[in-house]
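Researcher: Quick test of sequence recovery. Tokens follow.
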């Protein structure tokens, strides 16, 4: 990570083992921000892409879970309720 406003090239940052670099030049979308060494992506563009991906997949999420994980959770709860009902019925029959 570079200090705020410190100009460093991608090659220099790579040589120093840094994850980000700052050239002071705007990216293709006009952001003046740090870029990632690995892909060269501007941080602001990366954040915008992440927000866009999250919004596109929002319908697949239920409280942070994917639809599949939520379905498995519901199934497990139903099985737990059935087991509890059977246990109560068995206890009632023993009395």
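Model:
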């Amino acid at each position: 990570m570079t200090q705020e406003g410190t100009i460093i090239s991608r090659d220099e940052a790579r040589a120093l083992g840094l994850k980000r670099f700052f050239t002071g030049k705007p990216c293709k979308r006009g952001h003046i921000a740090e870029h990632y060494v690995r892909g060269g992506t501007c941080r602001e563009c990366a954040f915008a892409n992440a927000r866009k991906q999250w919004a596109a997949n929002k319908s697949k999420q239920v409280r942070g879970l994917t639809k599949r994980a939520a379905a498995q959770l519901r199934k497990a709860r139903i099985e737990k309720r059935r087991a509890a009902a059977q246990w109560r019925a068995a206890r009632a029959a023993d009395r």
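The two ends are 70 Å apart (CA to CA).
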